[in-house]
Write a structure and sequence with these properties.
- It is a single chain.
- This protein is of the alpha/beta class.
- The chain has a single domain (about 30-235), classed as SGNH hydrolase (Rossmann fold), CATH 3.40.50.
- Helix content is about 40%, strand content about 15%.
- It contains eight helices and eight strands, in the order E-E-E-E-H-H-E-H-E-H-H-E-H-E-H-H.
- The protein has helices at about 50, 60-70, 90-100, 115-120, 125-140, 165-185, 195-200, 220-235, and strands spanning about 5-10, 15-20, 20-30, 40-45, 80-85, 105-110, 150, 190-195.
- The strands form two sheets. A five-stranded parallel beta sheet has the order 5-4-6-7-8, sandwiched between helices. It has a three-stranded antiparallel beta sheet with strand order 1-2-3, with no helix packed on it.
- Strand 7 (about 150), helix 6 (about 165-185) and strand 8 form a beta-alpha-beta unit.
- Helix 2 crosses helix 8 (about 220-235).
- The longest helix has 21 residues, at about 165-185.
Length: about 240
């Protein structure tokens, strides 16, 4: 899983998407950090699965989730996204420190770990680094652990990209990472959204896989977003 594209850059309250040093798009104005006081705010932390590698910006799962919430009359600002293709847990943590975000958000999502597995990192390291990230996510959610939603790690071994590799071994690794992720998530009383079965079910279906044969298509992201939006709406309306 090569590290490339879409690096968030914050400057004077604005968030830009940068690729290879080129400004591609303005994601958020200052209002993303200072929305209407009646609007909910959303921070999405992760890797390529969060930015939506290979799909248009508004087809990634954070933007689709916001769109679904708005249809349910939940007024949510555009998501603030800190994610880059290829990031591991420690690289996401380093970027969070670099951005030095002091704002809190109505809810936060966290999806991270596939690149730890892909690079052969140890599960023990993942557990420690993931728990630190989760603790930080709770801080970003104003200390409200139920407002942190963790998405399980997709199984890239089910996709065409994994042709010629040991798919069963990849699945076992992913299961191990997700078991650790779920255990830590629930121990901190955060919410766990299991999207892995869908990625396995649709891994060979071209309608659910992007052109690179690895990342999800907008249709697959839509499945994740429906699950996430339903849980987020219930939480925010409490």
């Amino acid at each position: 899983m090569e590290k490339m594209t879409l690096i968030p850059f914050f400057s004077k309250g604005k968030c830009y998407i940068i690729s290879c040093g080129i400004l591609l798009a303005l994601l958020h104005t200052a209002s993303a950090f200072k929305p209407n006081k009646h609007m909910y705010t959303y921070l999405a932390l992760g890797d390529s699965y969060t930015i939506g590698e290979q799909v248009p910006l508004h087809d990634n799962f954070p933007y689709q989730t916001v769109a679904l919430l708005r249809k349910e009359h939940v007024d949510v600002a555009d998501p603030v996204i800190i994610a880059t293709t290829g990031w591991t847990t420690d690289e996401l943590a380093a970027s969070i420190r670099e951005h030095n975000i002091r704002e809190t958000f109505s809810f936060v999502t966290l999806l991270i770990g596939v690149n730890n597995q892909y690079r052969g990192r140890s599960l023990d390291d993942y557990r420690q680094e993931y728990e630190q990230l989760l603790t930080q996510a709770i801080v970003f959610a104003g200390g409200k652990s139920q407002h942190v939603f963790v998405l399980s790690i997709p199984d890239w071994g089910a996709t065409p990209f994994a042709e010629g590799r040991d798919r069963q071994a990849i699945a076992r690794d992913i299961d191990g990472y997700n078991a650790a992720c779920k255990e830590i998530t629930l121990a901190h009383k955060c919410q766990y959204v299991d999207i892995t079965p869908s990625t396995r079910e649709h891994g060979q279906d071209k309608d659910y896989v992007a052109a690179d044969g690895l990342h999800p298509s907008a249709r697959e992201y839509g499945i994740w977003s429906e699950k996430l939006a339903g849980e987020a709406a219930k939480t925010l309306k409490q």
